[in-house]
Amino acid sequence: MDLSTLPALTVLSDYVTTAKLDDNTIIRINHPKATAAISLHGGHIISFKPVNQEDLIWMSKDAVYDNKTPLRGGIPICWPWFGRVAAPSHGFARNMAWTLVEHRESEAGVIISLGLTDDEQTREVWPHRFQLVLNVEISDTLTATLNVTNTDSAPWKFSGALHTYLNIGDINNMEVTGMGPTYIDGLQDGKVCQGGDTLALTDTIDRVYTEPSKEIVLHDNAFNRRLSVVNEGDNSAVLWTPWEAGAKSMGDMNDDGYLTMFCIESTLHAKTLESGQEVNPGDTYQLSTTLSVK
User: Fold this and answer.
1) In sequence order, what are the residues at sequence separation of 6 or more whose Cβ sits closer than 8 angstroms to the Cβ of residue 227?
2) Whose CA is closest to 206, among 245, 172, 171, 242?
3) Which of these, 24, 107, 226, 266, is most buried using a 10 Å CB contact count?
4) Which fold has domain 56-293?
5) Are the beta carbons of 109 and 33 closer than 8 angstroms?
6) pLDDT in tens, 24-36
7) What does the pLDDT read at residue 1?
8) pLDDT at residue 278 greater than cutoff 80
9) What class of enzyme is it (predicted)?
């Protein structure tokens, strides 16, 4: 995705501008170390390209930028729950208007901070007060940190994920290591299964790996690179691909999109809202993912 040709709406600094992609307002980062882009709709990272590298982030060619629809690809923020434990699926944060709180830059890189707070609309879905701040650090690496603060008068619980779609050369020529041996299989009604040390793909998978290593590595052989995913604050890692049939069933994914994407997600997994991560009033919980090329 080449966002450099879009005319600038505003110039915020030497390295940061805003632009319109259809109806979505995009924050663009153009730094000597990397380029990146973030949609204010959803607080959604849609590109991260270190110098002399292919993009690490995959976006669907059929993603809908109407400032209403959750984007297909990138790094959706699944919050205050992950999956279908409540409605809407994956929570509401990925479909809300975030605000630019702050931007900082130096020779080392750029930090973009986006914010989302509760309002009448969110409290109709989830009756709690909160403040979210997403810090996106762009340099040779990308670190996305979701700061979850309870601004209510009582504790509440949440689950969530940074649902990263990685851009790869060919899903038939890749493998993953570091995800751990034990996973909950979403295609077998949540059956707990044991897997090997290396994952290669021949069909769709939807797995919650419950004992991941600190670093999960995707060996992207077609692009001759290794993508490192280091997660913090998580209790599991979700690995997912829709494969061919799944891609064809999605209106916002191009039919061959599955060939060049794979999801490795920093996840706080919970089977129910009641079994999620508790946050006391005034406290902040952090969930993060760091992406880099090795």
Assistant:
1) 56, 166, 168, 217, 218, 220, 291, 292, 293, 294
2) 242
3) 266
4) Beta-galactosidase; Chain A, domain 5 (2.70.98)
5) yes
6) 999 999 999 999 9
7) 67
8) yes
9) isomerase
Which of 294, 4, 284, 264 minimizes the C-alpha distance to 150? 284
CA 189, 192, 194, 197 dihedral sign is positive
Tokens of 240: 């997912």
Length of the chain in terms of residues written = 294
Kindly state the tokens that stand for 185: 């299989």
For residue 142, pLDDT beyond 70? yes
Amino acid at site 273: L
Which residue type is seen at 209?
A: Y
Q: Which amino acid is at 160?
A: G
Active site residues: 163, 265
Residue of 2, 20, 109, 102 whose CA lies nearest to 65: 20
